[in-house]
Write a structure and sequence with these properties.
By secondary structure, this protein is of the alpha+beta class. The protein folds into three domains: 182 residues, Heat Shock Protein 90 (2-Layer Sandwich), CATH 3.30.565; 79 residues, no CATH class; 156 residues, no CATH class. It is built from twelve helices and 19 strands. Strands 5-4-3-6-2-1-7-8 form an eight-stranded mixed sheet. A five-stranded mixed sheet has the order 9-10-13-11-12, with helices on one face. A hairpin with a 4-residue loop joins strand 9 and strand 10. It is elongated, with a radius of gyration of 37 Å.
Length: 495
Protein backbone atom coordinates (compact mmCIF):
# COMPACT_ATOMS: atom_id res chain seq x y z
CA UNK A 1 0.00 0.00 0.00
CA UNK A 2 1.37 3.36 -1.04
CA UNK A 3 0.34 6.60 0.68
CA UNK A 4 0.50 9.75 -1.39
CA UNK A 5 -0.65 13.35 -1.09
CA UNK A 6 -2.97 15.09 -3.50
CA UNK A 7 -2.58 18.84 -3.95
CA UNK A 8 -5.67 21.05 -3.88
CA UNK A 9 -5.68 23.73 -6.50
CA UNK A 10 -8.07 26.50 -7.38
CA UNK A 11 -8.51 27.60 -10.93
CA UNK A 12 -8.10 31.34 -11.48
CA UNK A 13 -11.33 31.40 -13.43
CA UNK A 14 -13.14 30.55 -10.22
CA UNK A 15 -12.03 33.82 -8.61
CA UNK A 16 -13.17 35.72 -11.67
CA UNK A 17 -16.55 33.98 -11.48
CA UNK A 18 -16.86 34.97 -7.82
CA UNK A 19 -16.35 38.60 -8.67
CA UNK A 20 -18.56 38.67 -11.73
CA UNK A 21 -21.41 36.41 -10.63
CA UNK A 22 -21.56 36.42 -6.86
CA UNK A 23 -23.43 39.71 -6.66
CA UNK A 24 -26.70 40.30 -8.45
CA UNK A 25 -26.20 44.02 -9.00
CA UNK A 26 -23.06 45.94 -9.91
CA UNK A 27 -23.99 48.66 -7.42
CA UNK A 28 -23.29 46.20 -4.59
CA UNK A 29 -19.56 46.75 -5.10
CA UNK A 30 -20.05 50.20 -3.53
CA UNK A 31 -21.59 48.55 -0.49
CA UNK A 32 -18.63 46.21 -0.12
CA UNK A 33 -15.98 48.91 -0.51
CA UNK A 34 -17.68 51.38 1.85
CA UNK A 35 -18.24 48.72 4.49
CA UNK A 36 -14.58 47.69 4.21
CA UNK A 37 -13.70 51.30 4.99
CA UNK A 38 -16.10 51.27 7.95
CA UNK A 39 -14.35 48.16 9.29
CA UNK A 40 -11.04 50.06 8.98
CA UNK A 41 -12.30 52.82 11.32
CA UNK A 42 -12.78 55.41 8.58
CA UNK A 43 -14.71 58.52 9.62
CA UNK A 44 -15.16 59.88 6.08
CA UNK A 45 -15.57 58.07 2.80
CA UNK A 46 -15.76 59.82 -0.55
CA UNK A 47 -17.42 57.95 -3.39
CA UNK A 48 -16.95 59.37 -6.89
CA UNK A 49 -18.93 57.96 -9.80
CA UNK A 50 -17.33 59.22 -13.01
CA UNK A 51 -17.73 58.28 -16.65
CA UNK A 52 -14.39 56.52 -16.94
CA UNK A 53 -13.81 55.30 -13.38
CA UNK A 54 -15.16 54.75 -9.89
CA UNK A 55 -13.25 55.88 -6.81
CA UNK A 56 -13.84 55.05 -3.15
CA UNK A 57 -11.44 56.91 -0.84
CA UNK A 58 -11.37 56.67 2.95
CA UNK A 59 -9.38 58.06 5.88
CA UNK A 60 -9.25 54.78 7.80
CA UNK A 61 -6.23 53.01 9.25
CA UNK A 62 -4.87 51.99 5.85
CA UNK A 63 -2.80 48.83 5.32
CA UNK A 64 0.83 47.95 5.77
CA UNK A 65 2.52 45.06 3.96
CA UNK A 66 0.92 42.44 6.24
CA UNK A 67 -2.43 44.16 5.86
CA UNK A 68 -2.22 44.01 2.07
CA UNK A 69 -1.34 40.34 2.18
CA UNK A 70 -4.34 39.76 4.42
CA UNK A 71 -6.56 41.84 2.11
CA UNK A 72 -5.79 39.66 -0.90
CA UNK A 73 -6.05 36.43 1.10
CA UNK A 74 -9.12 34.84 -0.49
CA UNK A 75 -11.66 33.83 2.12
CA UNK A 76 -9.61 35.18 5.01
CA UNK A 77 -11.17 34.61 8.46
CA UNK A 78 -9.43 37.73 9.84
CA UNK A 79 -12.60 39.74 10.48
CA UNK A 80 -14.41 36.82 12.04
CA UNK A 81 -11.50 36.17 14.40
CA UNK A 82 -11.08 39.88 15.24
CA UNK A 83 -14.65 41.16 14.95
CA UNK A 84 -14.04 44.56 16.58
CA UNK A 85 -12.18 47.45 14.94
CA UNK A 86 -9.12 48.78 16.77
CA UNK A 87 -9.99 52.46 17.25
CA UNK A 88 -13.78 52.76 17.49
CA UNK A 89 -14.46 49.14 18.41
CA UNK A 90 -16.98 48.82 15.62
CA UNK A 91 -18.59 45.46 15.00
CA UNK A 92 -16.96 44.51 11.72
CA UNK A 93 -19.29 43.83 8.82
CA UNK A 94 -17.07 41.67 6.60
CA UNK A 95 -17.15 37.92 7.15
CA UNK A 96 -16.11 35.98 4.06
CA UNK A 97 -13.06 37.76 2.61
CA UNK A 98 -14.37 37.76 -0.97
CA UNK A 99 -16.22 41.08 -1.23
CA UNK A 100 -13.23 42.82 -2.81
CA UNK A 101 -13.81 40.90 -6.04
CA UNK A 102 -17.22 42.56 -6.40
CA UNK A 103 -15.34 45.28 -8.27
CA UNK A 104 -15.19 42.94 -11.27
CA UNK A 105 -18.94 43.37 -11.77
CA UNK A 106 -18.31 46.92 -13.01
CA UNK A 107 -14.77 46.96 -14.41
CA UNK A 108 -11.84 44.78 -15.37
CA UNK A 109 -9.12 46.79 -13.62
CA UNK A 110 -8.94 47.91 -10.03
CA UNK A 111 -6.14 49.49 -8.03
CA UNK A 112 -5.75 49.56 -4.28
CA UNK A 113 -3.82 52.60 -3.05
CA UNK A 114 -3.07 52.55 0.67
CA UNK A 115 -1.00 54.27 3.32
CA UNK A 116 -0.34 53.22 6.91
CA UNK A 117 2.20 55.21 8.87
CA UNK A 118 5.43 55.29 6.87
CA UNK A 119 4.25 52.60 4.43
CA UNK A 120 2.54 53.41 1.13
CA UNK A 121 1.84 51.19 -1.86
CA UNK A 122 -0.39 50.53 -4.85
CA UNK A 123 -1.56 47.05 -5.88
CA UNK A 124 -3.06 46.53 -9.34
CA UNK A 125 -5.46 43.78 -10.34
CA UNK A 126 -5.96 43.56 -14.11
CA UNK A 127 -8.40 40.84 -15.06
CA UNK A 128 -6.96 40.41 -18.56
CA UNK A 129 -3.37 40.14 -17.28
CA UNK A 130 -4.47 37.81 -14.51
CA UNK A 131 -6.08 35.39 -16.95
CA UNK A 132 -3.10 35.54 -19.33
CA UNK A 133 -0.84 33.74 -16.83
CA UNK A 134 -2.77 30.77 -15.34
CA UNK A 135 0.06 29.65 -13.05
CA UNK A 136 1.08 33.05 -11.79
CA UNK A 137 -0.70 34.18 -8.63
CA UNK A 138 1.24 37.30 -7.76
CA UNK A 139 -0.06 40.83 -8.27
CA UNK A 140 2.12 43.80 -9.25
CA UNK A 141 2.74 46.19 -6.36
CA UNK A 142 4.52 49.51 -6.22
CA UNK A 143 5.90 50.72 -2.88
CA UNK A 144 6.72 54.43 -2.51
CA UNK A 145 7.44 56.93 0.25
CA UNK A 146 4.50 57.83 2.44
CA UNK A 147 2.90 61.25 2.04
CA UNK A 148 2.29 62.80 5.48
CA UNK A 149 -0.09 65.37 3.98
CA UNK A 150 -2.34 62.62 2.72
CA UNK A 151 -2.57 60.73 5.98
CA UNK A 152 -3.55 57.11 6.48
CA UNK A 153 -6.28 55.56 4.42
CA UNK A 154 -7.16 53.53 1.35
CA UNK A 155 -8.44 54.42 -2.12
CA UNK A 156 -9.87 51.87 -4.53
CA UNK A 157 -10.04 52.92 -8.19
CA UNK A 158 -12.05 50.87 -10.70
CA UNK A 159 -11.47 51.53 -14.41
CA UNK A 160 -12.06 49.93 -17.79
CA UNK A 161 -15.73 50.02 -16.87
CA UNK A 162 -18.10 47.49 -18.37
CA UNK A 163 -21.23 49.39 -17.38
CA UNK A 164 -22.27 52.75 -15.99
CA UNK A 165 -23.65 52.98 -12.48
CA UNK A 166 -26.74 55.06 -11.76
CA UNK A 167 -26.12 57.78 -9.16
CA UNK A 168 -29.61 57.28 -7.71
CA UNK A 169 -29.03 53.52 -7.42
CA UNK A 170 -25.70 54.10 -5.68
CA UNK A 171 -27.30 56.55 -3.24
CA UNK A 172 -30.10 54.12 -2.46
CA UNK A 173 -27.58 51.33 -1.92
CA UNK A 174 -25.59 53.46 0.53
CA UNK A 175 -28.70 54.46 2.47
CA UNK A 176 -29.90 50.88 2.79
CA UNK A 177 -26.69 48.87 3.03
CA UNK A 178 -24.18 51.05 4.84
CA UNK A 179 -24.20 52.01 8.56
CA UNK A 180 -24.55 55.75 7.90
CA UNK A 181 -26.28 56.22 11.27
CA UNK A 182 -23.10 55.15 13.09
CA UNK A 183 -21.20 57.83 15.08
CA UNK A 184 -17.98 59.27 13.67
CA UNK A 185 -18.96 58.13 10.19
CA UNK A 186 -20.13 59.84 7.02
CA UNK A 187 -20.33 58.97 3.34
CA UNK A 188 -20.06 61.60 0.61
CA UNK A 189 -21.26 60.71 -2.89
CA UNK A 190 -20.10 63.08 -5.64
CA UNK A 191 -19.70 65.88 -3.06
CA UNK A 192 -23.11 65.22 -1.48
CA UNK A 193 -23.35 63.80 2.03
CA UNK A 194 -25.71 60.85 2.25
CA UNK A 195 -28.14 60.99 5.16
CA UNK A 196 -30.48 58.32 6.55
CA UNK A 197 -33.98 58.05 5.14
CA UNK A 198 -36.67 59.71 7.24
CA UNK A 199 -40.30 58.66 7.44
CA UNK A 200 -43.31 60.77 8.38
CA UNK A 201 -45.87 59.16 10.62
CA UNK A 202 -46.07 57.37 13.94
CA UNK A 203 -42.79 55.87 15.12
CA UNK A 204 -42.85 52.62 17.09
CA UNK A 205 -39.44 51.72 18.59
CA UNK A 206 -38.87 48.22 19.96
CA UNK A 207 -36.23 46.02 21.57
CA UNK A 208 -36.53 42.32 22.33
CA UNK A 209 -34.04 39.91 23.84
CA UNK A 210 -33.34 36.42 22.53
CA UNK A 211 -31.00 33.61 23.49
CA UNK A 212 -28.72 34.71 20.61
CA UNK A 213 -28.76 38.46 21.21
CA UNK A 214 -31.02 41.52 21.01
CA UNK A 215 -33.48 42.43 18.28
CA UNK A 216 -34.04 46.18 18.01
CA UNK A 217 -35.36 48.72 15.56
CA UNK A 218 -38.29 50.94 14.76
CA UNK A 219 -41.49 50.72 12.73
CA UNK A 220 -43.19 53.67 11.05
CA UNK A 221 -46.87 53.89 10.20
CA UNK A 222 -47.17 56.31 7.31
CA UNK A 223 -50.17 58.62 6.82
CA UNK A 224 -52.69 57.23 4.35
CA UNK A 225 -51.79 60.02 1.94
CA UNK A 226 -48.20 58.73 1.75
CA UNK A 227 -48.97 55.03 1.45
CA UNK A 228 -47.31 53.50 -1.63
CA UNK A 229 -45.78 50.31 -2.98
CA UNK A 230 -42.19 51.57 -3.10
CA UNK A 231 -39.74 49.66 -0.90
CA UNK A 232 -42.48 48.07 1.19
CA UNK A 233 -41.61 45.68 3.99
CA UNK A 234 -39.30 45.76 7.00
CA UNK A 235 -35.58 46.21 6.34
CA UNK A 236 -33.71 43.42 8.10
CA UNK A 237 -30.19 44.48 9.07
CA UNK A 238 -27.19 42.49 10.23
CA UNK A 239 -24.46 44.66 11.78
CA UNK A 240 -26.36 47.77 10.59
CA UNK A 241 -26.38 46.60 6.95
CA UNK A 242 -29.60 45.61 5.20
CA UNK A 243 -29.72 42.04 3.96
CA UNK A 244 -33.29 41.96 2.64
CA UNK A 245 -36.84 43.11 3.30
CA UNK A 246 -39.30 40.83 5.02
CA UNK A 247 -43.08 41.11 5.45
CA UNK A 248 -43.66 38.89 8.50
CA UNK A 249 -47.25 38.10 7.49
CA UNK A 250 -48.20 41.65 6.46
CA UNK A 251 -49.26 40.31 3.07
CA UNK A 252 -52.66 39.54 4.62
CA UNK A 253 -53.20 43.10 5.86
CA UNK A 254 -54.55 44.41 2.59
CA UNK A 255 -53.95 48.11 1.78
CA UNK A 256 -52.70 48.73 5.33
CA UNK A 257 -49.48 46.93 4.40
CA UNK A 258 -48.49 49.88 2.19
CA UNK A 259 -48.45 52.21 5.20
CA UNK A 260 -45.78 50.27 7.11
CA UNK A 261 -42.02 50.86 6.87
CA UNK A 262 -39.19 50.21 9.27
CA UNK A 263 -35.99 48.42 10.09
CA UNK A 264 -34.85 45.74 12.51
CA UNK A 265 -31.27 44.93 13.47
CA UNK A 266 -30.32 41.40 14.51
CA UNK A 267 -26.56 41.02 14.26
CA UNK A 268 -26.64 37.33 15.19
CA UNK A 269 -28.47 36.22 12.05
CA UNK A 270 -26.50 33.92 9.70
CA UNK A 271 -26.46 35.24 6.13
CA UNK A 272 -25.62 33.86 2.71
CA UNK A 273 -22.17 34.59 1.23
CA UNK A 274 -23.62 37.11 -1.24
CA UNK A 275 -25.44 38.91 1.59
CA UNK A 276 -28.76 38.64 -0.22
CA UNK A 277 -30.59 36.45 2.27
CA UNK A 278 -30.61 34.53 5.53
CA UNK A 279 -30.02 30.90 6.38
CA UNK A 280 -33.73 30.44 7.00
CA UNK A 281 -33.55 26.91 8.45
CA UNK A 282 -31.17 28.06 11.20
CA UNK A 283 -32.32 28.22 14.80
CA UNK A 284 -31.33 31.88 14.95
CA UNK A 285 -33.57 32.87 12.07
CA UNK A 286 -36.57 30.95 13.41
CA UNK A 287 -36.30 32.67 16.79
CA UNK A 288 -35.93 36.04 15.05
CA UNK A 289 -38.92 35.46 12.79
CA UNK A 290 -41.22 34.43 15.65
CA UNK A 291 -40.24 37.56 17.63
CA UNK A 292 -40.98 39.80 14.65
CA UNK A 293 -44.39 38.18 14.18
CA UNK A 294 -45.26 39.21 17.76
CA UNK A 295 -43.93 42.73 17.25
CA UNK A 296 -45.95 43.16 14.05
CA UNK A 297 -49.12 42.07 15.91
CA UNK A 298 -48.71 45.16 18.11
CA UNK A 299 -48.08 47.29 15.03
CA UNK A 300 -51.30 46.03 13.45
CA UNK A 301 -53.22 46.86 16.62
CA UNK A 302 -51.83 50.42 16.62
CA UNK A 303 -52.56 50.74 12.92
CA UNK A 304 -56.15 49.75 13.60
CA UNK A 305 -56.49 52.34 16.34
CA UNK A 306 -55.11 55.05 14.03
CA UNK A 307 -57.60 54.03 11.35
CA UNK A 308 -60.38 54.20 13.94
CA UNK A 309 -59.21 57.67 14.97
CA UNK A 310 -59.42 58.91 11.39
CA UNK A 311 -62.82 57.30 10.95
CA UNK A 312 -63.96 58.95 14.18
CA UNK A 313 -63.01 62.35 12.79
CA UNK A 314 -65.06 61.63 9.68
CA UNK A 315 -68.04 60.57 11.80
CA UNK A 316 -67.74 63.79 13.82
CA UNK A 317 -67.92 65.88 10.66
CA UNK A 318 -70.96 63.99 9.35
CA UNK A 319 -72.74 64.18 12.72
CA UNK A 320 -72.03 67.89 13.04
CA UNK A 321 -73.49 68.49 9.59
CA UNK A 322 -76.54 66.33 10.34
CA UNK A 323 -77.18 68.12 13.66
CA UNK A 324 -76.95 71.47 11.95
CA UNK A 325 -79.46 70.44 9.31
CA UNK A 326 -81.89 68.92 11.80
CA UNK A 327 -81.67 71.99 14.03
CA UNK A 328 -82.58 74.25 11.09
CA UNK A 329 -85.44 71.97 10.12
CA UNK A 330 -86.83 72.08 13.68
CA UNK A 331 -86.46 75.85 13.66
CA UNK A 332 -88.75 75.93 10.62
CA UNK A 333 -91.15 73.51 12.29
CA UNK A 334 -91.11 74.35 16.02
CA UNK A 335 -94.36 72.49 16.58
CA UNK A 336 -92.52 69.24 15.85
CA UNK A 337 -90.05 69.70 18.71
CA UNK A 338 -90.69 67.71 21.89
CA UNK A 339 -88.51 70.14 23.82
CA UNK A 340 -90.23 73.44 23.42
CA UNK A 341 -89.31 76.47 21.34
CA UNK A 342 -86.26 75.95 19.14
CA UNK A 343 -83.56 78.60 18.69
CA UNK A 344 -83.26 79.60 15.05
CA UNK A 345 -79.54 80.04 14.43
CA UNK A 346 -78.33 82.61 11.98
CA UNK A 347 -76.87 81.31 8.74
CA UNK A 348 -73.62 79.49 9.37
CA UNK A 349 -74.14 78.82 13.07
CA UNK A 350 -73.60 75.28 14.21
CA UNK A 351 -75.27 73.10 16.85
CA UNK A 352 -74.92 74.42 20.36
CA UNK A 353 -74.42 78.04 19.27
CA UNK A 354 -76.72 80.76 20.49
CA UNK A 355 -79.53 81.92 18.25
CA UNK A 356 -82.58 84.17 18.38
CA UNK A 357 -85.81 82.48 19.45
CA UNK A 358 -88.42 82.85 16.72
CA UNK A 359 -92.11 81.96 16.96
CA UNK A 360 -94.48 81.81 14.06
CA UNK A 361 -97.77 83.52 14.37
CA UNK A 362 -100.48 81.18 15.67
CA UNK A 363 -97.93 78.67 16.90
CA UNK A 364 -97.24 80.21 20.31
CA UNK A 365 -100.29 78.63 21.89
CA UNK A 366 -99.41 75.31 20.27
CA UNK A 367 -95.98 75.38 21.86
CA UNK A 368 -97.37 76.22 25.27
CA UNK A 369 -99.95 73.45 24.95
CA UNK A 370 -97.29 70.99 23.85
CA UNK A 371 -95.04 71.97 26.74
CA UNK A 372 -97.94 71.51 29.16
CA UNK A 373 -98.72 68.08 27.80
CA UNK A 374 -95.09 67.09 28.09
CA UNK A 375 -94.94 68.24 31.70
CA UNK A 376 -98.13 66.37 32.56
CA UNK A 377 -96.81 63.20 30.97
CA UNK A 378 -93.60 63.51 32.96
CA UNK A 379 -95.55 63.93 36.21
CA UNK A 380 -97.44 60.71 35.50
CA UNK A 381 -94.21 58.76 35.84
CA UNK A 382 -93.72 57.67 39.41
CA UNK A 383 -90.39 57.81 41.18
CA UNK A 384 -90.43 54.01 41.44
CA UNK A 385 -90.82 53.63 37.70
CA UNK A 386 -87.87 55.90 37.12
CA UNK A 387 -85.74 53.89 39.52
CA UNK A 388 -86.68 50.59 37.87
CA UNK A 389 -85.64 51.83 34.43
CA UNK A 390 -82.12 50.50 33.73
CA UNK A 391 -79.96 51.97 30.97
CA UNK A 392 -79.32 49.79 27.95
CA UNK A 393 -75.87 51.26 27.38
CA UNK A 394 -73.47 50.21 30.11
CA UNK A 395 -70.24 51.49 28.64
CA UNK A 396 -69.20 53.33 25.50
CA UNK A 397 -66.12 52.46 23.43
CA UNK A 398 -63.14 54.87 23.28
CA UNK A 399 -64.15 55.78 19.72
CA UNK A 400 -67.68 56.88 20.62
CA UNK A 401 -68.78 60.19 19.04
CA UNK A 402 -71.14 62.32 21.13
CA UNK A 403 -72.52 65.75 20.25
CA UNK A 404 -75.41 67.77 21.65
CA UNK A 405 -77.98 69.90 19.88
CA UNK A 406 -79.75 72.63 21.85
CA UNK A 407 -83.51 72.78 21.47
CA UNK A 408 -85.02 75.61 23.49
CA UNK A 409 -84.08 75.28 27.11
CA UNK A 410 -83.34 71.60 26.65
CA UNK A 411 -81.81 69.59 23.93
CA UNK A 412 -80.93 66.19 22.57
CA UNK A 413 -77.59 64.38 22.42
CA UNK A 414 -76.60 61.98 19.70
CA UNK A 415 -74.12 59.19 20.36
CA UNK A 416 -72.67 57.15 17.51
CA UNK A 417 -70.85 54.04 18.71
CA UNK A 418 -70.29 50.33 18.18
CA UNK A 419 -73.17 48.29 19.66
CA UNK A 420 -72.83 45.09 17.62
CA UNK A 421 -74.28 43.89 14.33
CA UNK A 422 -77.32 42.33 16.04
CA UNK A 423 -78.18 45.46 18.04
CA UNK A 424 -80.89 47.92 16.87
CA UNK A 425 -80.07 50.48 14.22
CA UNK A 426 -81.06 53.30 16.57
CA UNK A 427 -82.58 53.60 20.05
CA UNK A 428 -83.25 56.37 22.54
CA UNK A 429 -82.78 56.65 26.29
CA UNK A 430 -84.07 59.89 27.82
CA UNK A 431 -82.76 62.66 25.60
CA UNK A 432 -79.88 60.62 24.15
CA UNK A 433 -80.20 59.07 20.70
CA UNK A 434 -77.84 56.13 20.13
CA UNK A 435 -76.87 55.20 16.56
CA UNK A 436 -75.22 51.83 15.94
CA UNK A 437 -72.10 51.95 13.75
CA UNK A 438 -72.13 48.16 13.42
CA UNK A 439 -75.59 47.95 11.86
CA UNK A 440 -75.45 46.75 8.22
CA UNK A 441 -77.44 49.78 6.95
CA UNK A 442 -75.13 52.23 8.73
CA UNK A 443 -72.04 50.47 7.37
CA UNK A 444 -73.46 50.69 3.86
CA UNK A 445 -74.38 54.36 4.04
CA UNK A 446 -71.19 55.56 5.76
CA UNK A 447 -69.07 54.92 2.67
CA UNK A 448 -70.12 58.23 1.09
CA UNK A 449 -70.20 61.53 2.96
CA UNK A 450 -73.56 62.71 1.61
CA UNK A 451 -75.42 59.48 2.28
CA UNK A 452 -73.70 59.19 5.65
CA UNK A 453 -74.96 62.61 6.75
CA UNK A 454 -78.47 61.94 5.50
CA UNK A 455 -78.56 58.54 7.21
CA UNK A 456 -77.66 60.11 10.56
CA UNK A 457 -80.22 62.85 10.04
CA UNK A 458 -82.90 60.27 9.13
CA UNK A 459 -82.34 58.30 12.32
CA UNK A 460 -82.28 61.46 14.45
CA UNK A 461 -85.48 62.90 12.99
CA UNK A 462 -87.13 59.50 13.41
CA UNK A 463 -86.36 59.40 17.13
CA UNK A 464 -87.20 63.09 17.70
CA UNK A 465 -90.55 62.63 15.97
CA UNK A 466 -91.34 59.59 18.11
CA UNK A 467 -90.40 61.55 21.24
CA UNK A 468 -93.02 64.13 20.29
CA UNK A 469 -95.84 61.64 19.87
CA UNK A 470 -94.86 58.05 20.73
CA UNK A 471 -98.51 56.90 20.71
CA UNK A 472 -99.04 57.93 17.06
CA UNK A 473 -96.15 56.55 14.94
CA UNK A 474 -97.92 57.37 11.67
CA UNK A 475 -98.02 61.04 12.53
CA UNK A 476 -94.45 60.81 13.82
CA UNK A 477 -93.17 59.49 10.51
CA UNK A 478 -95.06 62.21 8.61
CA UNK A 479 -93.27 64.74 10.78
CA UNK A 480 -90.01 63.01 10.13
CA UNK A 481 -90.56 63.25 6.39
CA UNK A 482 -91.21 66.98 6.68
CA UNK A 483 -88.11 67.51 8.82
CA UNK A 484 -85.90 65.60 6.39
CA UNK A 485 -87.23 67.64 3.47
CA UNK A 486 -86.53 70.89 5.27
CA UNK A 487 -83.11 69.61 6.40
CA UNK A 488 -81.89 68.67 2.91
CA UNK A 489 -84.10 69.75 0.02
CA UNK A 490 -84.67 73.37 0.95
CA UNK A 491 -81.15 73.68 2.26
CA UNK A 492 -79.64 72.40 -0.96
CA UNK A 493 -81.85 74.65 -3.11
CA UNK A 494 -80.63 77.66 -1.20
CA UNK A 495 -77.00 77.00 -2.14
Amino acid sequence: MQKLTLPITVDKSHLIAIGEQLYVRSVELIRELVNNAYDADATEIRVSILKDRIEVADNGTGMDMDGLKQYFNIGSPEKRLHNKSKKYHRERIGQFGIGKFSTLTAGTLFEVKTQCGDFAATVTFDKNEWERHPDRWELPMTVYPADPSRGDGTTVVISKLKKELSISDVEKCIVESVPIKAPHFKVILNDKRITPREFAGQRIPFMEGTEFGPIHGEIYILPESRANTEDIGIMCLVKQVMVKREFFGMESWGPDMYRVRGEVNASFLPITSDRSGFIIDSREYKVFYDKMIEILKDVKRILGSLSDKKETQRVKRSLKDALHRVQKALSRNPEFSPFGVVPLSTEGNMPGEAGMVMERKGEKDKERSSAGEEKAEEERLTKEEKKEKKPTVKKLTPGAVVQKMKLGNSGVSCCIDHFGGDAPEVFTEGTIIYINRDHPLYKREEKKTDTHTMHIARLMTQEISLMKDPANPRQAYERQSRLLKDAFVDNDNSK
